[in-house]
């Protein structure tokens, strides 16, 4: 199968061409951008159990990582500063390594059942201050560090993407069993040796046990 090749005639490569295609932003879309938390943004963050963290490394390669915890897991340190706990993972440290190289980050806060989202852009640092970390403990386990974000811009994002996707509509939910399990996917992608009959089922059970053991 041959790779896709873009016809240069159909490339949009300048800001001028882009604006010619879409036009200028509406006045309210520009005015809604803020540089500090107001009561609405605070309430949204306090309700959010989930966010997506976008980072880039020193050469501009991008990454997006999910972060989730009970609602209010992101601490509001002041009107321009947030702290996100870093929970146990696979130690790839993609987001954290990127922040060390390039502090610019983007956050997308999501509240279950809400179609609108909160976007926050800023500059991040990795912090091990016990006074910040201690209130973030869950089940007695304190995170090793927090991602502290100095806000440079924030604004509410409209509901169109969530409405188009019907993300919260139970009738649109898909059965996870209709696709290969995570252990099977990783096996296929890493070309590991073939597993014995029933081994994938045992791996699925082991993964669930690992989730319970290392969630915090």
From TrEMBL:
Domain annotation Pyridoxamine 5'-phosphate oxidase N-terminal: ranges: 38-157
Stretches assigned to coiled coil: none
Alphabetical list of SUPFAM superfamilies matching this protein: FMN-binding split barrel (SSF50475)
Location of the region described as Disordered in the Swiss-Prot/TrEMBL record: 183-204
Biased composition (Basic and acidic residues): 194-204
Extent of the signal sequence: none
Record Pfam families: PNPOx_N
Top-level taxonomic group: Bacteria
UniProt protein name: Pyridoxamine 5'-phosphate oxidase family protein
Organism: Histidinibacterium aquaticum
């Amino acid at each position: 199968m041959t790779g896709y090749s873009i016809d240069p005639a159909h490339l949009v490569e300048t800001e001028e061409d882009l604006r010619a295609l879409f036009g200028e932003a509406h006045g309210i879309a520009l005015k809604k951008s803020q540089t500090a938390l107001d009561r609405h943004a605070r309430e949204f963050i306090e309700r959010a159990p989930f966010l997506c963290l976008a980072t880039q490394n020193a050469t501009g390669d991008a990454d997006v990582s999910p972060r989730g915890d009970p609602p209010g897991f992101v601490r509001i340190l002041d009107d321009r500063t947030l702290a996100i706990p870093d929970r146990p993972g696979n130690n790839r440290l993609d987001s954290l390594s990127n922040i060390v190289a390039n502090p610019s980050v983007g956050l997308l806060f999501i509240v279950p059942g809400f179609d609108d989202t909160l976007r926050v852009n800023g500059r991040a640092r990795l912090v091990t201050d016990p006074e910040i970390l201690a209130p973030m403990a869950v089940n007695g386990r304190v995170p090793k560090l927090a991602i502290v974000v100095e806000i440079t811009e924030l604004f509410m994002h409209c509901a169109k993407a969530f409405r188009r996707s019907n993300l919260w509509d139970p009738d649109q939910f898909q059965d996870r069993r209709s696709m290969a399990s995570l252990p099977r996917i990783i096996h296929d992608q890493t070309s590991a040796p073939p597993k014995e009959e029933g081994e994938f089922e045992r791996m699925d059970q082991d993964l669930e046990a690992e989730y319970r053991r290392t969630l915090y």
